[in-house]
Design a protein that fits this description.
single chain; alpha/beta; eight-stranded mixed β-sheet; 17 helices; 16 strands; globular; disordered N terminus
């Protein structure tokens, strides 16, 4: 028996189940790492289920449980039914227990930092599909993540659960399956508190305020199919021009969102989901191919990932999911919306964008990619998560200078979050100083309170503002002769 304190369902968070093939001699935690990076939120419980098929057939059903909690490592053994050889059973349990403890121990600090509970269950003699469905139905499960060796069970599970399913492949890539639209209890709808597709900051109430408070752009009525197209199976893909005409009402004026010299931006509906269609001018071939090449290389939940493309004759198009909650800059301008952006949420946005830059600079397989446009006007909110606009280019010369420019712009973004003002709006106010010229002297003289947005009232979270200010100062005041990477700067 394991005792513990009683907590409310909201405090306990939701459950993410990761199912792994435990018969392999070496434990791979790639699927677990993917889940922690992309779908797990603070206060969630991650349940890792290792399936021992062969051993279970030789003996009997004996689920045993090894858990890693916030208080340290603990384990529990449960035997049920049938006769087993105690010596063989004990040796196998000890072997697997040591393997999983050793492999998962490095993830313990990450889970504890994010208030995530990590549990590991190893089961023999039980079908992987059945035990996964049983685990999902007995708890508030949001995601099931299968490793590639168990992908055959995804269709059967899909018919019996109401949560998201991901099949991890390799190199941080997974195939995602959204819940069935007919299951209204699992499909979040516009304006509801359940409309959350990504990890949240520590305070769920803050996130709900963000969801309900962020201004929404005017567009056609949205469907309950909120799940981003870019992450659905079959996307991104090539589109025919006739398909784009259907999506945008034949590029009607009522669908035109933005008209610039080198491109036009249209809104539309694809599979009952809002999308943006960017139409490039005929003399802008280079820009189209450059963006397409870069976007085909990146896959990150905080980047406006590609839904599709079209290239026919002189007509060139890129498709993206619609950022339906507006930009950070727009939300900072609106008094009522800015009040809903608590310090905890602003800190979370800063962390998200910092992680995105680290991905672009250091984790892309084909080399670094620079963004060159990190600012509040290019950070869009969609489905309760911040998302960057498209990265701009992949430099081949003087790479360090370009990467340093992104780091500097990230520091400016942190100032925008602290002050509640965009750098462009600050300049337009005619104060005679830029945002940096105004804010840095105050922050360096321990007058951070004069910089902080007075519209935010949650004084209890003031410490996260100091974290953001410290990171901003390092990004903007690095006088070292050696250019530092984004990882070497302190995290906000």
């Amino acid at each position: 028996m394991v005792s513990g304190t009683t907590s409310s369902p909201r405090d306990e968070g939701e459950k993410v189940i990761v199912v792994m093939d435990a018969n392999r001699s070496k434990v791979s935690v790639d699927a677990v790492c993917w889940a922690l990076k992309y779908v797990v939120r603070p206060k969630d419980t991650v349940v890792v289920i290792g399936i021992l098929c062969e051993l279970g057939r030789k003996t009997s059903c004996f689920p045993f449980h090894v858990g890693i909690g916030n208080a340290g490592i603990w384990e529990r053994l449960e035997l049920s039914g049938g006769e087993v050889n105690p010596k063989e059973l004990g040796e196998e349990i000890e072997k697997k227990r040591e393997q999983y403890q050793s492999s998962l121990q490095p993830l313990y600090r990450q889970c504890r930092k994010n208030e995530v509970k990590l549990e590991v269950k190893l089961a023999a003699g039980i079908d992987a599909k059945e035990i996964t469905i049983e685990e999902a139905q007995n708890s508030n499960t949001r995601w099931i993540v299968l490793d590639s060796h168990l992908k055959k069970g995804k269709v059967f599970m899909y018919g019996h659960v109401g949560c998201h399913i991901a099949v991890y492949k390799e190199k941080d890539v997974a195939t995602l399956i959204a819940p069935k639209a007919s299951d209204s209890s699992q499909i979040p709808r516009k304006g509801t508190r359940a409309d959350r597709s990504q990890r949240n900051p520590d305070n769920d109430e803050d996130l709900n305020g963000l969801q309900e408070g962020l201004c929404r752009l005017e567009l056609a009525p949205q469907s309950p199919c909120w799940y981003p197209l870019a992450w659905r199976t079959g996307f991104p893909r090539s589109f025919a021009l006739t398909e784009l005409q259907d999506i945008t009402n034949r590029f009607g004026e009522e669908n035109l969102v933005l008209d610039q010299d080198d491109f036009k931006l249209y809104k539309g509906i694809l599979q009952e989901t809002p999308v943006l269609v960017r139409r490039f001018s005929g003399n802008n071939n280079g820009k189209f191919w450059s963006e397409l090449k870069i976007l085909s290389r990146v896959r990150h939940r905080n980047i406006m990932n590609l839904v599709g493309y079209c290239c026919t004759g002189s007509s060139m198009f890129l498709l993206f999911d619609y950022p339906c909650m507006g930009s950070l800059e727009v939300n900072l301008r609106r008094e009522d919306k800015a009040e809903n952006l608590s310090w905890r949420l602003r800190w979370y946005i800063g962390q998200e964008i910092g992680a995105t830059l680290r991905y672009l600079h250091e984790e892309c397989a084909d080399g670094p990619i620079v963004h060159l446009s990190v600012c509040s006007s290019n950070i869009e909110f969609s489905n309760a998560a911040s998302a960057m606009s498209s990265p701009q280019e992949s430099p081949k010369k003087d790479q360090g200078e370009y990467l340093s420019a992104d780091v500097h712009d990230y520091g400016v973004l942190l100032l925008e979050l602290i002050a509640g003002k965009s750098a462009g709006d600050f300049q337009a106010q005619g104060i005679g100083k830029s945002l940096i010229e105004w804010a840095l002297p105050l922050m360096e003289n321990d007058s951070l309170g004069e910089v902080m947005d007075p519209r935010v009232k949650d004084a209890d979270d003031g410490m996260v503002v100091h974290h953001m200010a410290r990171a901003a100062l390092f990004c903007l005041k690095n006088n070292s002769s050696r250019r530092l990477s984004i990882t070497e700067y302190p995290q906000c």
